[in-house]
Design a protein that fits this description.
alpha/beta, TIM Barrel, globular, binds pyridoxal-5'-phosphate
């Protein structure tokens, strides 16, 4: 578990360095520690090292960790595929959802968000490489979905998220992130107040930061490889 502390220190340095090299100052990027399939002890170790934001892909696993850390002031992000029959639990217990890609899901989250809680913070997932295996809205339908979600009560639309296909080379990694940056800029041009690009993982966060990422979602590089 000491490794988590050390890993976090290394990653925070790399994030600051990438931000500096990209000419964006030292601290424009939020680190989301993706704790899926990691034990509660790993979350507690990271929290002990000052980590606040955690990402989970599986609703039940996330709910257990949220309940077990209720005494800590952690912020929980749902980053997995969201099925309609799981929206209520997500709306009740998470702070953010990065993976909204249909109006039906957004409407359910809006209806099911408890009135006593802060607005649920939402990103729209874009299928930026048009892959059949991945969720996400296509760029053409994005403006319509964004306008509709922005109108819903108890949700705050913050921006866009993507999960591009793997690319090895830095310049190739930048390309889909650059298109995401342009999509966000176009929505802002249309009058939506958006401030978030959730993009970049362990293998490509530097390229994402060069294209304006504001949240990087990092699992392996923080916690080590996931148990299978
Ligand atoms: C697992 C996962 C991550 C983290 O991936 P790593 O390669 O372990 O950093 C980020 N985003 C999503 C949506 C994920 O499912």
């Amino acid at each position: 578990m000491i490794r988590v502390t050390e890993n976090l220190r290394v990653i925070r340095d790399l994030l600051a360095q990438a931000s500096n090299d990209a000419g964006r100052g030292e601290h424009p990027v939020k680190l989301l520690a993706v704790s899926k399939k990691q034990p509660l002890a790993a979350v507690l170790a990271a929290a002990g090292a000052g980590q606040v934001d955690f990402g989970e892909n599986f609703v039940q696993e996330g709910l257990e960790k949220i309940a077990a850390t209720a005494h800590l002031d952690l912020v929980w992000h749902y980053i997995g595929h969201l099925q309609a029959n799981k929206t209520r639990q997500v709306a009740q217990h998470f702070d953010w959802v990065h993976t909204v890609d249909r109006l039906r899901i957004a409407r359910r989250l809006s209806d099911q968000r408890p009135a006593g809680r802060d607005d649920l913070q939402v990103c729209l997932q874009v299928n930026i490489d048009d892959e059949a295996s991945k969720s996400g809205i296509g760029p053409d339908e994005l403006p319509g979905l964004a306008a509709a979600v922005a109108e819903l009560p108890r949700l705050q639309l913050r921006g866009l998220m993507c999960l591009p296909r793997n690319r090895d080379d830095f310049d190739a990694q930048r390309e889909p992130f650059a298109r995401m940056r342009q999509l966000l800029a176009a929505l802002r041009q249309d009058g939506l107040e958006l401030d978030t690009l959730s993009m970049g993982m362990s293998g490509d966060f530097r390229a994402a930061i060069f294209e304006g990422s504001t949240i990087v979602r990092i699992g392996t590089a923080v916690f080590g490889s996931r148990p299978t």
